[in-house]
Amino acid sequence: MNKMPDMPYVPNDRIGIMGLYFPQSSATARILSDMRKAIFLEQKASLPFSDIEESQTEIAEMRKTIDGVTPHFSQHLNNKVFGTGTEGDGVRTVFLTIVDYLGHDGSVLRANVVIPRNLGTNPWSMYHGEEGYDSIDTRITAEQARQYISENEAALWGMGIESVFVKTSSFFYVRDKDLKEKGFISSEGAVDLDTLVTYLADTHGFVGLQELQKPTEKEYMERAVSFNAARQKQTVEQKVGRKLCQYPPFMHEGHAISDWGAVRIVPLTEEDAIYWGTLFGKHTEVGIFDIVPLHVSNLYQNPRPNGFKSYNIAVRARSKRRKPTIREIQVRDLLRHFNSEINEDSPFYHGSYRKTQTESSKRRQRLMQAFEYDVALKFMFNARELKFPVRSKK
After folding, report:
1. CA 368 to the chain's CA centroid
2. pTM of the full structure
């Protein structure tokens, strides 16, 4: 039985926001618990700087653990979902970085631009140390952003863009044979990245230097390809901040953050999604990894009130050669992905949902800032901006 909170409006966090990653005795758990109670009591609690420093060390170590496992887990997951493939028909990696283009005064000239990079069918050699960044994901993001700017410097400068601000990034894995069948790879082997991106993620109409229309539902269902995606959540500090301010108590593991290292499986049909969701919702193997489900949210069986369906499965991934890590495996079919990520007119569109969640806790977010807990979180998670200048070739 859960212990009742001291005040009826102070949530009782049995496991804690980051409880799947850190024990309750950790500095991180203590700080987040104190922050959350203070926000709901509207009484600032002091946070010992020694605890904040200890939490920063805990978070850095966990980030490295997730980092070290991610490429291996992604490889084995791709093999399980796609098969190992044949020569010339491998799994291609498309790396997407979401950025804002900034003008000379720092104003946003174009928001949420998608920069696509084709990393080929064997990107794993890139995973070799963070080299001064907080994670390998962050290093690759920085390297690819700089390379993109270098290749397009004159064009960016000509548009009045003086710097590029990185927001987030993800790896997308697609089968070459699917890309060829749907016309995304030409007979000469060239990949039409700009168009492909509009079928993978929310472009908000701008891909690199091109302004492109999003596909209609009919176009999407005719050309979309199944894919897997993976990323280490670089904005986890922001998500923790939002969770601190959300009202509903976290009564079981499924409400705690589990997607610090997340993968998404997007198969063609609802039947396929149910197959994979059912498989990963049970004890199973993914290559060298033993997968133990911790919490299964089966929205195909019990859809949200608005009708949205998906699987969100928190698992512990273990192997003899790698440290165990918490992963979230998200599964949804192509049509659900379209309506969640791309179709802004859909009631399932994630951008609208996040805006609603933010607006519902504005007062508590103001308290976060007034208590300077947002500053403490940035320090704990070593959050720093990735912004790169664009220099003229003149």
Report:
1. 23
2. 0.89
